[in-house]
Write a structure and sequence with these properties.
The complex is a heterodimer of chains A (311) and B (252). With 311 residues, chain A is of the alpha/beta class. Chain A contains 10 helices and 12 strands. In chain A, the strands form 3 sheets. In chain A, strands 5-6-8-9-11-10 form a 6-stranded mixed sheet, covered by helices on one side. Chain B has 252 residues and is of the alpha+beta class. In chain B, strand 8 and strand 9 form a beta hairpin. Helix content of chain B is 29%, strand content 27%. Chain B has a 5-stranded mixed sheet with strand order 7-4-11-6-12. Chain B has a 4-stranded mixed sheet with strand order 10-9-8-13, with helices on one face. Chain B has a two-stranded antiparallel ribbon with strand order 1-2. In chain B, helix 2 packs across helix 6. The chains are: A alpha/beta (311), B alpha+beta (252). Strand 12 of chain A pairs antiparallel with strand 2 of chain B.
Amino acid sequence: MSNRRDFLKTFAASAAGISLTGIPHLALAKHQITKITILHTNDVHSHIDPFPANDPKYPGLGGVAQRAAIINDIRNREPNVLLFDAGDIFQGTPYFNFYGGEIELKLMSQMGYDAGTIGNHDFDHGVEGLAAQLKNATFPLICCNYNFKKTPMAGKTVPYKVFEKSGVLIGVFGLGIELQGLVDKKMYGETVYNDPLENAAIVTHHLKYVEKCDLIICLSHLGYKYKDDKVSDEILAKKSLNIDLIIGGHTHTFINKPYIYKNRDGKDVLVAQVGWAGIKLGRIDFFVNKKSRKLTAESTTLKVFNYASVI
Amino acid sequence: MFSPIKKYFFLLLIFASCKTSSVIKSETTVYPLNQPGYTQVDSSILQLYAPYKVKVDSLMNRVLIKSDMSMEKGIPEGLLGNISADATLLQVREIYGGNSNTSVDFCFLNNGGLRASLPKGDITVGNVYSLMPFENEAVLLTLSGETTEKLIDFIVQKGGMPVAGLKMQIKDSLSTNVIINGKPFDKSKTYGVVTSDYLAGGGDNLYFLNEKLKMESTGLKIRDLIIKEFEDRNKKGETLNAKIEGRITYVK
């Protein structure tokens, strides 16, 4: 952690614009910078028990009780933790065949998930099957590009949600993948898929300028990227404005270090995804400077930038 | 105490106007679960799902057969695809074939539908549920020679799919030496093709299957067919094994 302490010290000095020493400025820095810890999973696919010890690919890996222990540990250490899932909660073990997703949602609720989005396999017992299980979830399903108006899911999702942590506003929205050709029509029924890029543009503009969010996160089940021009997290990142982080899913991609793309304004967008089956838990810590509005742009940002480039 | 195995520091340089807040840095960590150093469990979580687990395990722990090898999927051909397509084709022939005038020529499945590998050793009902969790049913399609050719092209384009009763080579991105049910492919014939209702309905972008001449539902779940095939082999005193036998190969 010494890196971070040095960083904060330097930041404090830089922020004042002059060379100052001593504790008061370190304290100041602590007030200015808020650490937001984002934890994420995707495509857990009803994997509740760890993989069996004789599994050829993932022997003994995963498991909700193991994941919960890590999450508890992080929550005990960090003040501002948010836990998200990027869809395909359902389908993959007999727990889903027999209980239709009940236990998955109960466990995620117990683990304190803050939100999830909807994957294609979450329709595997039909849009009715999904709607019927939502009573087991204490967290919202967030999706802005599925129109459920004519389905039993009507009114049961939200397009976005704003979370507040230590004064930092975190706007979270969700995007679902095109269902036609991927999910049997009789399963998704009258669910209407709308263009993810258009909807993302509208929602992120709202989150940034109306809700005044400091950090904007997309829970996406679009998939990391494709050989063709099918819309993906990569395409979304490049064409977006105002998104800081895309937590992806669907393609079961193990991304150890989030990819960084430039958005339309040349700003960085992180794209993360942690494979599938709850084999890994992703963590991204954001350090948000909430009070920069009281400082001049030059005296803060440039010096932090200079420092940052040295690390 | 968790000290992350891999920790990355990198920087987000998002400095907008002085009126907005800014993200000045981010760190990422990936926690591989249940590996050395990550072995704690939350017992309240275990308690919450214990009643479900008892019931599921009692059904799932039944051993069907012993496998000589572990099987994973692969392209152009994989052990897991071969055993799954074989089981589906053989069981549809045995259980359903006699009730139909349609010949049951070959079977194709999709790799995306094979959701877990099979281990070496005891294969349980649970292993087959993991492999084939979907409630998909086997259907028997009657396809014209032309539509069959489109299907062959599709398999080539995919770089191979799980097949049984079909053998082909891929040369310069085109199919060659296509053998169906032991005979060379003949575009003037019709073929009886076993697949899942998901794929028959255009899943995986198989839109052209709406050209089918006939579709018969077998009423049999693919998972149940695989379970039955494994049980049947076990009853005959066999163990489970598969080979890469050149069903789909690239040639120069």
